[in-house]
Amino acid sequence: LKMSWFWLYLPLHLLTGTSLCHAIKAPTTSSQQSFKTNLFNFYHSLILADGKETTIHLLKDIPKRYYFALEEGRVLAPFSVTVTPCDVPIEWSILVYKFLPEKAAPGDHVTQEVSKSQKASSIASTIFNYKGNSVETYMGMSSHAALYLLEFLSTERDTHITVYLTTDTTSGHLYPELPADPRVNVIGIGHTTVTLTWKHSPSVLQHRESIQYCLLVNEKHNYKSLCAAETAIRSSGMKLPPTLALSLSPYLLEPQQVMILSNSELSIINKVSSGEVRQVCMGTKNTYTVPSLSPNTQYYFDVFIVNLLTNASAAYTGTFARTLEEPEPKVTELKDDKVIHVVLDGKKQKFYSLQYQARHKKIHFTFQLCRGQIRVHITRNGKTVASENLSGLRYFSLKGKLLDTYLVHLRSTEEFNSSVKVQASPHFHKPLFPLLPESLKIKSFSKLRTCRSVTIAWLGTQEESKYCVYRKRIEEDQIWRELQSADRCSGPESRHKSEKVLCKYFYDLNLQRAVTTETIKGLEAGTLYLFDVYLFGPSGIPVRYHSKVVKTRKKC
């Protein structure tokens, strides 16, 4: 701001620490104390930057003050102040001191001061106050030189806010504009999806390349600003990238976060104690279907319009919706020792139920995950006895009463097909699968690689078993598909005969020495190979180790 006559005169005493009580003819008796208090407030205040968003940290019950000035000589000088609470409700107010070239009217609360060149008087008044956690904007106009004092107070706990002051209302807006109707509307609800739409922001039409919409989905409540949403997620123990709009780098993610990028849409999923928090930035599309939600669950949806250049945002009026209940799945009967192969279509059939009537007190459930991701939930007479995500091979040994009824609910957590093999058996001495080693990983030795051979190793067990090794030549662009889409339940019968390398038997009673190695020869130089090891137990059902990709040396 340019210096005006009062700006040179009044703050000089404040900045030098000289008491204005000697320079100003202070009010008498009843108003004298409030006059001194106002002087103290200015003395202990900070200048609020013009045209810049300022982050202010507030301590509980300790007010914080900022001030700014409007210069003399401007006719009807406009200004606006926008305050965004980033957590709890706050109290804030604006106090104005107007400096008049003439004497104030009788009866006003006035302080007079005399300079060498002219007389001036100041009128102090509160022009705005607010309490709450909504984003509020005060727009004002001044025809006289004035000094404004802003006071902020948090009475609940330590928090932070952002404040934006501008005295130039003609050169555009820091914050993206909201439409006349800023509501987010629900236009479709399914068992696992909710479809939303909202009116376009005028800013999208003007600055399409630097503006985008971001959606926040959570199970607690709606948020009135982007910084309030970020604060809530951080307080749940989650570190969050600076904003939804800037969360485009995978290295910013925490271990509890999952990032999905498809069809030019970025999704970040946070696993927090209060449920799932999902963030999606979808460019300038104003209709979006939120996928992979849980049935019969209430979700809250908030849309933010974000300026990628300034990182400023504006919040639409959020909404909420409850997904539909999943229809009761058909129940398939499980019989003793019989293996059932269950395939779940991630898009059409996400649930599958199996029922087992116990004829013994002890029951042994076996699950072998073949493809995708599946969650298993087991109940006994209506009470949950086990619930977890399946990984590889999993056993559940349960003890109950004769004729107990067990229900096994299987749910796909993927959009594509998932499959699993299930067996219920009272015969603990007849396991369906062989005894497994501590790890099913295959190790390769880089120093032993040559242009024509590769050496691999894997762990065995204390039980003599048969191991068969297979190899397959692949290309670089096939690695991900081979590793992700492989059916982990399929045995060697699904492999081409030319891929078989060898079969061998081995075991060691000392688990520390239950390791075997094999050097596979006759390979081509500079070529990628996929290696698989199958373990066969007494039942003849194989267990497949995790596939290993190794490349032979190009030059030797």
Short structural description:
The protein has five helices and 38 strands. The longest helix has 12 residues.
Which secondary structure elements does this structure contain, and how are they paired or packed?
Elements: H1 5-16, E1 24-25, H2 32-43, E2 46-47, E3 52-58, E4 64-70, E5 77-85, E6 90-100, E7 110-114, E8 119-132, E9 136-142, E10 146-153, E11 159-166, E12 184-189, E13 194-198, H3 202-206, E14 211-218, H4 226-235, E15 257-262, E16 265-272, E17 275-281, E18 287-290, E19 298-307, E20 313-315, E21 319-322, E22 331-333, E23 339-344, E24 351-357, E25 362-371, E26 374-380, E27 383-389, E28 393-399, E29 405-412, E30 418-425, E31 443-444, E32 454-459, E33 465-474, H5 479-485, E34 500-506, E35 515-520, E36 528-536, E37 542-544, E38 548-551
| Unreliable residue runs | 1-37, 103-120, 239-264
Give Rg in angstroms: 35 Å
Largest sheet composition = 7 strands, mixed
Domain module count:
4
The CATH architecture classification of the largest domain is Sandwich
Tally the helices: 5
Intertermini distance: 73 Å
What share of the residues lie within helices? under 10%
The averaged pLDDT comes out at: 80
- Describe the global form: elongated
State the strand order across the main sheet.
1-7-8-6-10-4-2
Proportion of beta-strand residues: over 45%
